[in-house]
Amino acid sequence: MIRAGIVLLTAAGVAAIERVRGGMTYYTLPGGGVEDGESPQEAAVRESHEELGLIVRVDGLLAVINFRGSTQYYYRAEVLGGEFGKGTGEELSSPEHSKAGSYRAVWLEPRQLAVRDVRPASIAEALAATPEHHRLLDDWTRTPLVVDEV
Could you tell me what percentage of the chain is helix, strand and coil, using 3-state DSSP and rounding each to the nearest 5? Predict the structure, then answer.
């Protein structure tokens, strides 16, 4: 399975999806499955709109995460329009998905990435450990992070 997502860092923080499922709260970077006929970049843009309510432009591959048989591509994103928290994806409004837990768009301060369960952990940990977040993203755009996560 191929997944694609974004790293969106603004003055408000890092965009994330808060998941409450099975009594656990954790956070994921926005993203989802790549559909047939869609590139990972197109999927990242689509998923950002569905989950966050934002229209974004992706401008560079930041990371490739290999996790449990899936390859996940994360791109640097810039907001072009839309309204944060107004996503219309099925997971946000479907009763079927609500049984699998809740989904909510949130902003996390970069320092919170170190103390919360944020997935993928490798991206969250690197951002939390680096005070100059934008410089780290610039470095990853030149040489993407590649990680095999367990």
Answer: 30, 45, 25
pLDDT at 91: 74
CATH pick for 2-149 out of 3.30.470.20, 3.90.700.10, 3.90.79.10, 3.50.50.60? 3.90.79.10
Q: Which two tokens stand for residue 130?
A: 């680096």
**Residues 72, 146 contacting (CB under 8 angstroms):** no
Put simply, whether the predicted model's pTM sits higher than 0.90 gets the answer: yes
Residue 68 has pLDDT above 80, yes or no: yes
Spatial contact of 53 and 79, defined as CB atoms under 8 Å apart: no
Between the CA of residue 142 and those of 60, 63, 135, 138, 139, what are the distances in Å?
Answer: 8, 11, 11, 7, 5
Amino acid in position 40: P
Query: Kind and range of the H or E element at 8?
Result: none
